[in-house]
């Protein structure tokens, strides 16, 4: 599985990607990129971090005002970085991004071999004539490289890194979560996931795929009663996660000497007080919202971002927790309160792991065109709105809405492709149901 | 959601039909788009203008302006004074007059460092006077500006507008109702002066740094809400033409345009748009043709991206501005005199004075087929959408065809950009499988765009190089560009020989090119609809046709057509045609020479405009359109698609 030339190629890509990032981060474009609302939100912008760190170093609690929304852990670390090695900060961002890419690469490798072994196990159950659908050993070599390349050379990710957003670290945590999840290491996985949750809250939903994975890893290694083992494993995972999160929260409160940070971080994420435009859907609705209904719609929107898809998708995809995790990450990136392009780029990089599904995808072209056009249109409409003052918020929101729609199309399409392929595997490629072509629906 | 959840959508009958008859469909879309746009000029398909901003209260009070006699005195004095300064601005006289009125009067100096060539400097001087608002604290301001033209200027003079401005200043001075500062501005050197003044007022630089030094300003008013630019060529005015097109195709708020027309009607001043009054034909066709001519006049003006008056430079700063150009009365009939003009301007400024917030209610994106009718963005975008969708459908059909190929092409990724970036990973397996390589595609795209950026940054170098050999700036730039673009025509020689390139690679390149063109047109349409429309009409049909064929004749024809559409060639052609239309009596040879000179100058103006005013037509044309053109050029020189070959046989 681990082929040497592929590894070398990936290392070459790291070098190239590192050089591109290094060049951009030292160029004049850095500030322009970092100031883009699509890249930096109030939750992840480096500007806010420096402000918070300055306040902290002056002995002022940064969480008292309405300015700083990073976690206390982040605050301490960033403060140390800014005060001691300011010249290395750019390099740290680049290195973290490259590490993320490598972690994703390893994740994809492990996932591909797991996919292959699973296919071997289930091969007898598949219908006849579906051999063309099956993965071959040679099909498993490239996807990890694609995953790494898609992360390394995705402009969204590059800009996110060059703009020095803290999404870089969030992505690093998420990538480690994926890797440790697939490796079945409970404590490590739960603590990384807790770290990710501490920073941006939404990754908490990944607990579901993680516990499925861990439970499965355990039940496959032992021969005892599977049902109860799985249940207890899930409970254990949840408990581990919660205790890790509580521990982190406790450490945070000790570090800043109080619990104000909860309001400034989680409160900020959940209540969405900052309506600065971003690629998400919250700002537009909540600028228009009557104050009386704000709470109601906050709940609706937040449930939509977290819980709404969690249950149905879990029921449908519990056999494929990795896909579940990826689609949850994608939905998070679309529906969270302060999304940025760095989040979008992260789940886009995961997609090549399901390269075998691409043949089943129907909307690839539409989605590709929408991504291209909205990405180009966004900054232009922004310029018209903010600088020329001829367009208005509706134009920009229209573009971000189209962008979100394209992402939803993408997620739906990949899920449908998965269902379609599974169906074809079990029922044969050419299936007719009572004279009419069968229709599959996502439920 | 049926589209979403139906897995058969991609290979469904609809798609099959779409792919099978995409060529016809594209042509239908193209023609449909054009026809749709054309019928928009008819009054059944556009809307009547109306006031959205209630605060304007146009013409609610009776005009009181009665200083027309003073204006005449000013005019005769200024004519005498101007004769003493044939090349400059009689600023001592102007300063004195403004000071006599007890206004805060200032001069503003600016310098232009010639961006191309010898490092020459040009200086200029603006004069402005501020009437401080008695009813508020100078937080907002209105501008009345006049471009001063010395007698030696090639443009028709504007002395009467200075005279009426002074008379208005005298009249405004006595009024108690001003709640916004009124700034009277006399600028020099046409648009340069206004640009420098605005940059100095806002302490910013719009163009390339170091080209236009805007200088400092001693006095300022509040934030400018609106500006009226006045160009009266005579004392006795036949009609007033309202000019609206600004830099990069930006338009003022429709409310301001309506306001001008409304007040002109109220005072009985003949007013036109594009020098044409509203028609009153009984015949439906004649009526449409009249409106369509006005519409196209607006489209062609806006498409250049160059402001057609000093108002056009205000727009960028969020200041709504129009130019009122008054033409001399010819023939019989009673002319419009200072009295009526003064009343119109008084009404305008009183209405603007009423504004409670800046213009935001009405449309910013519109086209005008008459003075009182408009086509809003919601009405004119669908035709362009049809045009661009032809490109996208073509790309989709190519894509689909490639997917269905027996030597199954690789299911590519979501994003073109990623696709290109992922190219390195393909180099490894090159030749090892039946996969085609994306390396040549990525390389071609990168190369052409890099060349575009190189072209964009070359004018200065070309200019100075040319000067060393004793050529004038315009010649050296034009010839330099000609040589560079001619040498770029040989790119296919290298690109097509690139190892690992299969037919599919070029199909992918074709798709990339089509999508890039569609994106470019859509994005341009947001900023400058007219430019996008005209380019779409010119480029879309040929670009749909630019698929490599086996037939030699057809191939040559394609190449000729595509060469004609080369941006530089297109510029030359357009300027030639324009020259031929402007001088219909000249013999051909002289016309050619004139046209060539004009073309060279047009190119230099485009470059200088991009440096001084940050006009983006030149950068976009060189850095995006030209590379895109080259992509199609490479596609044309590649081998034709297998399947097409079969069908052709």
From TrEMBL, chain A:
Has the keyword Endoplasmic reticulum been applied to this entry?
yes
Tell me the Pfam families matching this sequence: PIG-U (PF06728)
* Keyword Transport (UniProt): no
Where is the protein found, in the record's own terms? Endoplasmic reticulum membrane
Q: Which domain of life is it from?
A: Eukaryota
- Gene Ontology BP terms: attachment of GPI anchor to protein; GPI anchor biosynthetic process
What are the coiled-coil residue ranges? Answer: none
How far does the signal peptide extend, from start to end residue? none
| Keywords recorded for this protein, A-Z | Endoplasmic reticulum, GPI-anchor biosynthesis, Membrane, Transmembrane, Transmembrane helix
Q: Could you tell me which pathway this protein works in?
A: Glycolipid biosynthesis; glycosylphosphatidylinositol-anchor biosynthesis
Q: What is its main location?
A: endoplasmic reticulum
Membrane topology per the record? Multi-pass membrane protein
Q: Name one GO cellular component term.
A: GPI-anchor transamidase complex
Q: Where are the transmembrane segments?
A: 88-105, 156-180, 192-215, 235-252, 292-311, 323-341, 361-382, 394-419
Name of the molecule in the record: Phosphatidylinositol glycan anchor biosynthesis class U protein
Its source organism is Cryptotermes secundus
From TrEMBL, chain B:
Name the Gene Ontology biological process terms.
attachment of GPI anchor to protein
Q: How does it sit in the membrane?
A: Multi-pass membrane protein
Which coarse location class applies to the principal site listed for this UniProt protein? endoplasmic reticulum
> Which ranges are annotated Basic and acidic residues under compositional bias?
419-431
Q: Is Transmembrane a UniProt keyword of this protein? A: yes
Parts of the chain that traverse the membrane: 379-399, 436-457, 477-496, 503-522, 528-548, 560-581, 616-636
**What's a GO cellular component annotated to this UniProt protein?**
GPI-anchor transamidase complex
Q: Spell out the Pfam families in the cross-references.
A: Gaa1
Q: Where are the annotated segments for Disordered?
A: 407-434
Keyword annotations from UniProtKB, A to Z = Disulfide bond, Endoplasmic reticulum, Glycoprotein, Membrane, Transmembrane, Transmembrane helix
Question: What are the coiled-coil residue ranges?
Answer: none
Its function, per the record, reads: Component of the glycosylphosphatidylinositol-anchor (GPI-anchor) transamidase (GPI-T) complex that catalyzes the formation of the linkage between a proprotein and a GPI-anchor and participates in GPI anchored protein biosynthesis. Binds GPI-anchor.
Subunit comment for this entry?
Heteropentamer. Part of the GPI-anchor transamidase complex, consisting of PIGK, PIGT, PIGS, PIGU and GAA1. Interacts with PIGK.
Q: Write the protein's name.
A: GPI-anchor transamidase component GPAA1
